[in-house]
Every structure is written in C-alpha cells, then in structure tokens.
Amino acid sequence: MERRGVRRHQRIRSTSISTGLVVLVLVVLALVVTGSPGWPRVRETFFNGEDARAVFPDVLGGFWINVKLFMICEVAILALGLAVALARTARSPWLAPVRVAAVVYTDLFRGIPTILLILMLGFGVPALQLQGLPTDELFWAGVALVLSYGAYVAEVYRAGIDSIHPSQVASAEALGLSHTQALRHVVVPQGVRRVVPPLLNDFVSLQKDTALVSVVAVFDAVFAARDYTAYNFNYTPYVVVACFFIVLTVPLARFTDWLSRRWMERERAGQL
Amino acid sequence: MTLRTIVAVPLLLLVAACAPVDQEGPGDTAADPTPTTADQCATDQLPLLKAGTLTIGTDSPAFSPWFKGNDPTNGRGYESAVAYAVAEELGFSDGDVSWVTVPFNTSYKPGVKDFDFDINQISITSARAEVVDFSDGYYEAAQAVIALEDSPIAGATSVAELADYNLGAQTGTTSLTAIRDVIQPANDPAVFEDTSAAKQALLNGQVDGILADLPTAFYITAVEIPQATLIGQFQPDVGQQEEFGMLFEKGSELVPCVNEALATLRDDGTLDQIEQEWLSDVVDVPELQ
C-alpha cells in the first residue's frame, strides 16, 4: 500500500517535471522567434492570413492530386516490392535470371534520385511518341514513384523475410508443406508483420515525395503554393501546404507507434 | 539545485549565445523620401553591397535574347546590355560590375539581398511591389503564343479561339496569369517550373501551345524549336502596359539613382538602340484580336 503511494508520488513528480520543461522550451523558443528584429517581416511574408485564405482552394485542389497519387502508388509499390523481394530470395537454379533481374532492379532504382526518374519518365517516354502509350505526365510521374519506392520497399520486405529463422522452413517442410506453401503460409506472413513499421515509414516518406511530380508540370499542392508564391512574392502558401501534410502524416506516425507496440506486447506475451 | 535549474541554466545560456544581432542592412535605414541630388548618386556615395562594385543578379541559365551564350558578363543580349549601360551611367566601368546567380524564386526572399539589383525579366505588379522595390520599367512586354506548325491551334487568329486548347506557361509568370485571366481555357493550364520544361511538353504534344513574353517566344521559335511557330501576340492587360523592372531590396536607396540612369538612357535613345540591336526581330508578329 505504501509502495503504491510512493510510486504514484514519483509518477506525478516526473510528469510535472517533463511538462514544465516542455512548456519552458516552447516559451523560450517563441520569445526568441517573435523577439527577433526580422520577425514583423517574417510574419508578413510567412504567416499572412489574407494570402493563406487566397491560396487555400488551390492548395486543397492540388492536395487531392497528392492523395490520389500516393494511395494508388502505395498499392502498386507494396505489390512490386513483395514480388521483387521474393524473386531475390528464390533458391531454384531455374529462377536465376529472375534473381539477377531483381538485384539489378533494386541496385539501379535505389541509385537514381527520384526527381531524375520522374523527369526521365514524365518527359522522356512521351517523347518516344509510341502509339498506345499514355502521354499524361501524372501517369508517368506515378510510374516513376512506384519504380523508385518499389526498390526500397523490396529491400525492407527482404529484411523481414530473411529474419525468419530457417528452422521455420525446415519445420514447415517436415510437416509436408512444399517450399512455395512454406513461403506462403509461414515465412511471408511473419516476415511482413515484422517490417510493417518500416513500411509505414516509407509510406510517410512517399506522401511527401509526391511533391516531386511538379517537375513534370503536375500541379500538386506544393506546386500550387509555389506558383502563388512566385507570383505574389509571399511565402504563406508554403506554411499552408506544410499544415496539410502534417495533418496527414502525424496520425499515421502515431498509428505506426501504436501498432508496433501492440505487436511487441503480443510477441512477448506478457513477459514484460 | 533542482533538476529544473540544472537544465534551465545551460538552456538560457544557449539562447543568449544565439540571440539575434541587429543588422544595419540597407533596408533598415531606408524609407527616406529625400529627393535625389546629383551628389547622392555620385559613384562613391551609392549604397552598395560591396563598395566600388555593382553587384547584379540574374538567373541561370540566362536565356536568349535577354542574354547571350548563358553568360551575363559579355554585355550581349538585351538585359545584359541594359545592365552595363545603367552601370556606366552610374559611373562604373565594365570591370566594376560583378554578376551573381539569383534563381527567380530566391530573388524575393525576405531579408538582406546578395545583389544590388536583379535583372531577370521580372514583371512589375502591385502585389510584388509590397515586398520588393522595382525600378521603372525598362521593357514593355507583350505575351505571345507558341505552337507546333502542324498543330490545329496554329490556325488561331483570336484570343477567344485559344480557349479550346491545352495551354501552358512557366510558374509565377504573367504569361500564366494571362492564360488564367484573359484566355480562360476550358482545361486548367499546365504549369511548368521553367521554359525548358514547357518546351519539352510542347514537343511531346503534352500541351498544344505555350505562352511566354514576346522576345522569349520569338527566340524559342526561331532558334530552339524550329518546327514551332509564333501564332501571335497580345497585350494581357488592357490599359495597363506590362513592364519588366529591376528588382531591389525593399527600401533600397539605389532605386532613384537607377531610375535616373534609366531615364537618361531612354531620353538619349540608348534603350531604343539596345532594343534595336537585340530585340528588333520581334516587331512583325501578328496581333491576336
């Protein structure tokens, strides 16, 4: 009983210390920023309510492009990444060409900066003037994002698959499962579950990289903000667009934390 | 000593260490409306970034016909020639002029500029003039429409006809505003980061036509994309002539002196002569109704 009281007391004390410190740091930061000689100028150029209202509809319209882009691309990326990861871990000698292709793909596309890939596909492929191929910049920018992120995600999957102990495969085969069945029912489900947090991390990263598509004239939220900025010489739209992305990514980050904590608790099954 | 003071003391020291210093930039002492005197614009009295040097900014690449060979220092091309003429009028020899690369997007960032003025086909607008200062206009720009010769849009003779096509222009330009406000096409205009991207999209057939200021458009069709043609030109603002101005830090005391130099150059015919030399080809482009 007494021990509980002491613990409660300690908990209250540590909470109040951390709360106090956080508030103190925030207040000091706010004072430094608002007290600086250039603050009125910065407030006028970065936090102008009038400009924020004026640009809001454009940014909202552009943001819808970003949302569509990363939702569609993410599905394709997860599928492509898993396929490449499985190809890389394949053992059969018959699949050697597939394995080599997978290695070349990940090396190549992780090496090329995403922005260059978008430029090359967005302007390069339509320049071929091949019949039947779409010339829409948005489509090719999406393809470029999928190719670039697919390479990263493939490596994440591979790390998850490799982390499954070989004894699991051996046990599965001892139970009469074929190698494919062992992969399908034993290795992949466990491996993927382990890498969900890094996958969600890549997803957050992708959301922000959708802004790169502006190099091929896709008028996304960031480009809409930049266009307003360039014409009116006011940076407020950047702050507006940053808020849009924060509203989107912060809940996802909290969800990732919650998910990984829950799985950790489940795996340790009450040992902690 | 409680935990809080242990942490707070170094924190406050850190804040003190990075406390801002009041800078005595040219912008702080500005807003002095005293009329210009000959004395104030004497070469050694000019409020310059670096004493004895006139630092001029422009973007890279520096496009023709405003500059030639992507080299602003050679005095060739309209804006380069104007810049050197102004410098000479202010009392600088060519050797005293120093050029810095200033991407358009950074030319209007708040705070101290790293140039005395920026010359980069920047249109004067009232919204912009709240943030920076402009010289008087040194060129009056019309808008022009570029299309591939075999495209159906090439037959257009009026602004109204253009509205049915996919059009595009560079971000932040008055060309883009002209599409949105004057042409008002059925499809949203394509927006490009720079004219290079616009040219590529035109070649790829991703847009039917692109807009640019007339001399730039003329150079694109004459030299860069020979299979493209200038459909025509138009004035986007009826009654209010659009002009390019040099860009200064807000409150720069150099503005009246540069304006004085520009007035002299206009009066003695130097500006016309420079225009004749570098932009004379663009006069016989058809007007769009």
Chain pair with largest interface: A-B, 36 and 42 residues
**What's the number of domains of chain A?**
2
Give the tally of β-strands of chain A. Answer: 0
Biggest β-sheet strands, sense, barrel of chain A: none
The helix/strand order of chain B is HEHEEHEEEHEHEHEHEEEHH
The share of residues in helices of chain A is over 70%
Average pLDDT of chain A? 90
Quaternary assembly: heterodimer
Explain the overall architecture.
The complex is a heterodimer of chains A (about 270) and B (about 290). Chain A is mainly α and about 270 residues long. Chain A has two domains: about 1-35; about 50-270, MetI-like (MetI-like fold). Chain A has eleven helices and no strands. In chain B, about 30% of the residues lie in helices and about 15% in strands. Chain B is built from nine helices and twelve strands. The interface between A and B is large, with 36 and 42 residues.
Brief characterization of the structure:
The complex is a heterodimer of chains A (272) and B (289). By secondary structure, chain A is mostly helical.
List keywords for this structure.
heterodimer, A: 272 residues, mainly alpha, MetI-like fold, flat, B: 289 residues, alpha/beta, 5-stranded mixed β-sheet, 31% helix
Lay out the secondary structure.
The complex is a heterodimer of chains A (272) and B (289).
Chain A: H1 2-35, H2 39-46, H3 49-89, H4 96-111, H5 114-127, H6 137-162, H7 166-174, H8 179-194, H9 196-209, H10 221-232, H11 236-268
Helix pairs in contact in A: 3-4, 3-6, 3-10, 3-11, 4-6, 5-6, 6-8, 6-9, 7-8, 9-11, 10-11
Chain B: H1 3-17, E1 54-58, H2 78-90, E2 97-101, E3 117-118, H3 126-129, E4 132-134, E5 139-140, E6 143-148, H4 159-162, E7 167-170, H5 174-183, E8 190-192, H6 195-203, E9 209-213, H7 214-224, E10 228-234, E11 243-244, E12 247-249, H8 255-267, H9 270-279
Parallel strand pairs in B: 1-2, 1-3, 7-8, 7-9
Antiparallel strand pairs in B: 4-12, 5-11, 6-9, 6-10
Helix pairs in contact in B: 2-8, 2-9
